[in-house]
Amino acid sequence: MKILRVYERYFARLIYGVFAFILFAVLSLFVFFDMLSELESVTGRYTSLVAFFHVILQAPTRIYEMLPIAVLISAIYVFSQLASQSEFTIFRVAGLNTRQALFSLFKLAIPLAIATFIFGEFIGPAAEQYAQKIKLEALGATVSSGFRSGVWVKDRDRDATKGHEVTRFVNVAGLRPDQSITGVTIYEFDDQYRLSVIRVAQEGHYQGNQSWQLSGVTETRFLELPRGEAGKADPLAPAFRGEQHALSTMAMRSELTPQILSVLLVEPERMSTLDLFRYIRHLRDNKQDTQRYEIAFWKKVIYPLTLFVMVALALPFAYLHARAGAVGVKVFGGIMLGLSFHLSNTLFSHVGLLHTWPPIVSALIPGTLYLLVALGALRWVDRH
Q1: Where do the TM regions start and end (predicted)?
Q2: In the prediction, which pLDDT does 106 show?
Q3: Which helix (H) or strand (E) element contains residue 169?
């Protein structure tokens, strides 16, 4: 056990040291390219300094995305060096077998998996949302959903005058950085599901406790005419009449909250699992498609576990005896392997969405395939 503790500390010092360097190098490269991309949007209040701050706030998300690749490259580099200098052979002669080495690497991957979870759940989504708000404020723009019809919310309320329950469909065209909403349209139906009120508001501000303050409201009410007035003998006579009123402000109670609207600022893949869970539940309540968000949810759940797959993929490189000159080739192969995992992870998300696969299957396929490759390679090097 004492020997195992010694080699685990040795592996940890080598892998963590190389990992920190590679992560810094990869992150610097992505920040540089992101900054070049943001320079195209620099204009007026959105200065180069604001653009740089926007890019820096996106760095935690980049760290989250690059962690598995950085772990794979660093582990491959370390094990290639150990193989070229016959150090790993000495550990094997001392009694280290493949299973022990694999479980030791899993132990070293636990802190990195925890760091991936923290960046993906807390640091990354919060920084990403703040980065988008800064950019929108500088550009003086609003954000809306990817649909032309805006965001639709179904909720229920009680009519203050008649006392019965009413069903409402609320449509929001856009969300401002201060979480106020614009282009609000409300369709209200009575207990017999007949359209009774249409309200159009220029903007709304959240007051807390699911309460909104609408301003610039135009309200159209449809009132049922008495039977005699409606003209019972004439089938073409109108049964309803419309009344329109203009209101400067109006209070509205709705299930629509800034937490639900905040998903418009961040892509599903960059949201936290809690926000994804809340939005998926909201979409289900409104009978809307949830598959894209469910795939993103399961990918977020599984993603920290991919670090264990990465260290398993790197271990076979320790069994390949080669001269020191071949280390660069192995590292290049590790980079290609890591990029292929990143691309396949994105690919299967789109393929699963296209073919309506179960979301958990779409999220599991890339990691499962690479885990099988890792186990197959370990079995082969253990026998040879």
Answers
A1: 12-33, 63-80, 101-120, 301-320, 327-348, 360-381
A2: 94
A3: strand 165-175
Query: What is the number of domains present in the chain?
Result: 2
pTM of the predicted protein model: 0.80
- Is residue 280 assigned to a domain? no
Q: Where are the alpha helices (DSSP H) in the chain?
A: 2-38, 48-57, 59-84, 87-93, 98-118, 124-139, 227-230, 258-261, 273-285, 291-302, 306-314, 327-354, 359-383
Is 101 in the same domain as 158?
no
pLDDT at 193: 81
Instruction: From 314, 306, 317, 382, select the one nearest 99 (Cα to Cα).
Output: 382
44 domain residue, yes or no = yes
Q: Walk along the chain (384 residues) in steps of 10 and give the mean pLDDT of each run.
A: 70 94 94 93 87 95 94 91 87 88 93 95 91 81 60 71 74 80 90 87 90 93 70 62 89 79 76 89 80 93 95 89 62 83 89 92 94 91 78
Check if the beta carbon of residue 303 is closer than 8 Å to that of residue 295.
Answer: no
351, 255: one domain: no
Residues 226, 252, single domain; the answer is yes
Establish if 266 belongs to a structural domain. no
- Same domain flag for 114 and 56: yes
Look up residue 50 and give its two tokens: 């604001």
Q: In which domain, by residue range, is 180 found? A: 151-261
Integer-rounded Cα radius of gyration of the chain: 29
Question: Is 284 among the domain residues?
Answer: no
